[in-house]
Amino acid sequence: MLLNKLKTTDNHWRTITNSVTFIVVLVVAKVNGDVWMSFERTTFQLAGSGDISAEQCAKYSDYYCLNNWETEENRTRAASSNDFRELKELAEANYRWLNWYNINSVADNDACCHYQLQQYWIQGQLKGFSPQEFLDKMSDFNSHNKHLNYVVARYNSSLCVNVIYRLGYGSPTQIISSRSGIIHNERPFIIVPSQVGDTVALIHTPFHDLREVLNFDWFKENYICRDHPEICY
């Protein structure tokens, strides 16, 4: 069981930078007639170039970085004065094998742990989760109930492709709109690997069918297991 692994206490692609970015907005959807009440999502940043976060991630991994876990659930647990000390200890002991690195700030070069503490404060402590409960959520790579529900991509007008940079998995949702930019459903979606010589994943499918292609089992096999085989085998 995965939680038992926890310790307890390329110039061609630079043209991508000038292309249009879109972020997909998602809402809680009905599943078999019932509303999925406890929305949650685990987001992964793909390592690569042409995007600040992708380049930050590539400093630490050839594959991916664990970006965050978020939920709409609010628990009744009261915050403890020991929460941040405990979370810091847990983060220091586990952030490397989780690939839970600081990828959001070029100025802050510390891989751990200000970034992790900030995430816990917003998505953990303020919502009633203890440090251990929050880490358990962050480290849950079980495929059960992990549906593709978030995609960040950039359309490259020079290459005529949609380049995917970030993927999120969790509660089943439906895509309702794009915040900005143009989604070219008729164009291929690709994932640019950070490793030289690695195969580029060309995905010839409409955007709304990406969930079937880029399911969590696919992501786990091609990213998590390749970087950390000890998690999967």
Structure, explained:
The protein is an alpha+beta fold and 233 residues long. It is 26% helix and 26% strand. It has one domain. Strands 1, 4, 5, 6, 7, 8, 9 and 10 form an 8-stranded mixed β-sheet that branches. A two-stranded antiparallel sheet has the order 2-3. A hairpin with a 4-residue loop joins strand 6 and strand 7 (161-170). Helix 2 crosses helix 3. 36% of the residues are buried.
Task: Please specify the SSE layout and strand pairing.
Elements: E1 20-28, E2 30-31, E3 34-35, E4 40-46, H1 52-58, E5 64-71, H2 83-98, H3 114-123, H4 131-138, E6 147-156, E7 161-170, E8 173-178, E9 189-191, E10 201-203, H5 210-213, H6 216-227, H7 229-232
Parallel strand pairs: 7-9
Antiparallel strand pairs: 1-6, 1-8, 2-3, 4-5, 4-7, 6-7, 9-10
Helix pairs in contact: 2-3, 2-4
Q: Keywords for this structure?
A:
single chain, 7 helices, eight-stranded mixed β-sheet, two-stranded antiparallel ribbon, 26% strand, 233 residues, alpha+beta
Summarize the structure.
Helices cover 26% and strands 26% of the residues. The protein has seven helices and ten strands. Strand 6 (147-156) and strand 7 form a beta hairpin.
